[in-house]
Amino acid sequence: MPLSCELNPALATLPVYQPGRPIEEVARELGLPARGIIKMASNENPLGPSKAALAAIKTAARNLHLYPDGNAFYFKQKLAAKLAVEQSNIILGNGSNDILEFLAHALVRPGVDVVMSQYSFLVYPLVTRLLGGNPVIVAAKDFGHDLPAMLAAITPQTRLMYVGNPNNPTGTLAKPEEINDLLDKTPPHVLVAIDEAYFEYLENPHDLLPLIRRGEKPNLILLRTFSKIYGLAGLRLGYGIGHPEFIGALEKIRQPFNTNSLAQAAGLAALDDEEHLRKTRENNLEGRKFFEEGFRKLGLEYVPTHANFILVKVGNARRVFAELQAGGIIVRPMEGYGLAPWLRISIGLPRENRRCLAALKQILATS
């Protein structure tokens, strides 16, 4: 019997977001032992979460019969202190992806333009179209954001601009002076959302928090996450930092208990574990250098990265992806991003990086 409910018409042409394939799914499909599969597809921390976070989860698990603190008071208090902002500057999400949806619900409706780069996170156009908005896609420059062109794309109908920095899936980083110029020239009716999911991997990050502390840019929000460098992707914990009035509006959209008790406890503990962050950065820097050198030796084009993944051009990427997967190595094909000849490879542990590069070399040699 066919469905008789009248659906949102935007759903008719809206694609389903396809994440990196999980290890268990690939193991079932290919009949491979899960323990022999490595996942280098979703930009996760190969070191995992910190021991402090794991201990906090174990303690918090005793109270799983109770609802979490809906306002996450202690976690938000500690996070605000670390960032030197007020709790009223922070909105929490079930991953930073949750915040992206809040922004769309708050600002997007039919007739509204949303500016974004050609090669940027696929959720930006998805949530825009879901709410009836018009994604304004600005051509990339050297695989990164062309911020002057994005500024020029603003119209009286524009209400939102997404800027990934560092950008996913390309790993590019906008110059500080270009970010400053964008923020100075963006009209006040447009909110600039700077997606900083990979911010903590930067050696000398451009810190925009002073603008929020001083209240100078009410139309700026920064998005960050515990899924990447903190290694808590499975718990879904992200946050936005912005003007208290706008954050207050987002609180009306946020669902009750959207950050669970285990996530809050793990996040609270992870904020103190600087050693874990240091080790993660060191592993990532070593892995990036390893892949860049390896790709140069193989004569492969790649995009220099500022994140924990690297984009490499391999030709028939769908075939290479399938052959790597058959060998127990999961990477990410990029055809959904308009980058059909390219693969995105997350930086893993040294042994995982060596295994991936050796398999890639062998596959390309026999093509």
Description:
- The protein has 367 residues and is an alpha/beta fold.
- The protein folds into two domains: 17-48 and 274-365, Aspartate Aminotransferase, domain 1; 51-270, Type I PLP-dependent aspartate aminotransferase-like (Major domain) (Aspartate Aminotransferase, domain 2).
- It has helices at residues 23-30, 51-60, 73-83, 96-107, 123-130, 147-152, 176-185, 209-213, 244-251, 261-270, 274-298, 317-326, 350-365; strands spanning 38-39, 90-93, 113-117, 134-138, 158-164, 191-195, 220-225, 238-242, 302-303, 309-313, 329-330, 332-333, 342-346.
- A seven-stranded mixed β-sheet has the order 2-8-7-6-5-3-4.
- Helix 4 runs parallel beside helix 5 (123-130).
- It is globular and about 60 Å long.
- The mean pLDDT is 96.
Q: Strand arrangement, largest sheet? A: 2-8-7-6-5-3-4
Number of strands: 13
Structural class: alpha/beta
Question: Helicity level, as a percent range?
Answer: 25-40%
Task: Summarize this entry quickly.
With 367 residues, this protein is α/β, with parallel strands linked by helices.
Looking at this protein, list some descriptive labels:
Aspartate Aminotransferase, domain 2; alpha/beta; 13 strands; Aspartate Aminotransferase, domain 1; four-stranded antiparallel beta sheet; 367 residues; globular
What is the topology?
Elements: H1 23-30, E1 38-39, H2 51-60, H3 73-83, E2 90-93, H4 96-107, E3 113-117, H5 123-130, E4 134-138, H6 147-152, E5 158-164, H7 176-185, E6 191-195, H8 209-213, E7 220-225, E8 238-242, H9 244-251, H10 261-270, H11 274-298, E9 302-303, E10 309-313, H12 317-326, E11 329-330, E12 332-333, E13 342-346, H13 350-365
Parallel strand pairs: 1-11, 3-4, 3-5, 5-6, 6-7
Antiparallel strand pairs: 2-8, 7-8, 9-10, 10-13, 12-13
Helix pairs in contact: 2-10, 3-10, 4-5, 11-13
